[in-house]
Amino acid sequence: MPSKDETLSDLTIWLLAVRDQRDKVAFGKLFDFLAPRLKGFVMRNGTAAAQAEDVVQDVMLTVWRKASMFDPHKAQASAWIYQIARNRHIDVARKENRPVPDELGEDPGQEPDASQILAVEQEASKLKQALQQLQPDQRAMIEKAYLGDLSHQEISTQTGLPLGTVKSRIRLGLGRLRTELRGLR
To answer: What is the pLDDT of residues 33-56, one digit of tens each?
Structure first.
């Protein structure tokens, strides 16, 4: 345990509580804080949303099971957990015989700063607003394709709509989203 003079991050405090007392409340806080960040990390490295959620679940389960191995003298809590995420992502990529993205070779380092988190939250809010402005049929197709991670054919089968209709609605919806979100990046 670090000396009393050293300030511990919330992540470290939560992880130590999980390690030392199997504290489920602390684990919940750890999960709530890290899960969206880990999902973003995995998705930025080429994993689909649904699979990224599975990876995050595996990572957090590993954190719970192996918390006893965490040593705050050797690594920060965030670095320790991101290393688990990186390794799990590489395992999944190897299992699928996909090339491992170069970015995963790098240590994710420190947590994103507050301005990065705020920027992502603002972008997400603008995207939600733009999605709400789409026609309901276009929004439904885009949500199924990009949030539901379904192929155009799967959407066609699920909805009973012709494949051309599904593709047209997605294309038109994406065009409108581009217009609405112009200047965001």
So the answer is: 999 998 888 888 777 888 888 889
Biggest distance spanned by C-alpha atoms of the chain: 66
Closest CA to 166 of 143, 138, 146, 147: 138
User: Of the CATH numbers 1.10.3720.10, 1.10.287.1770, 3.40.30.10, 1.10.1740.10, which one belongs to the domain with range 10-105?
Assistant: 1.10.1740.10
Task: For tokens 């299992």, name the residue.
Answer: 95
Which residues lie closer than 8 Å to 77 by C-beta, 6 or more apart?
9, 11, 12, 14, 15, 70
pLDDT tens, position by position, 127-155: 888 888 889 999 888 888 877 777 888 88
Alpha helices in the chain (DSSP H): 10-21, 24-44, 49-66, 77-95, 114-132, 136-142, 152-159, 163-181
- What is the pTM for the complete model shown? 0.50
Fold of 114-181: Arc Repressor Mutant, subunit A (1.10.10)
* pLDDT surpassing 80 at residue 116: no
